[in-house]
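Usage

Read records sequentially. Each one opens with the input sequence:
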Amino acid sequence: MAQINSYKDLIAWQKVFQLGLRVHRAAGTLPEAERFGLISQLRRAAVFAPSYIADAYGRGGADYPRLLKSARGVIYEMDTQLLFAKELEYMPAEKYTPLKADLDEAERVLAGLIRSLGS
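and closes with the structure output:
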């Protein structure tokens, strides 16, 4: 097992960060009319989710599981927002499907970290 010296060593953070990058980029392909709607919401969530994990690691203690759960909540928000983009036909299925798979994997790994803390 690798030693954890930084939040960047957490596999959950790595997965969520990579997901965030992909979602942030994908949001830029949505219609300009969504600049203050879905684009803004997706980009905010893409940044917040890994940021919550970093914050959780930095604070430690009782805040750690609570902030990890906040990160998971933001991932669920992203999931909903991506589904809106797909259903409104702003995002084709061939772009949505791999993003959804990445999101599910990131959430699964994060959920495992939360469970490992007994929370």
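Summary fields computed downstream for this record:
- The chain has a mean pLDDT of 95.
- The domain at 9-116 is CATH 1.20.1440.60 (de novo design (two linked rop proteins)).
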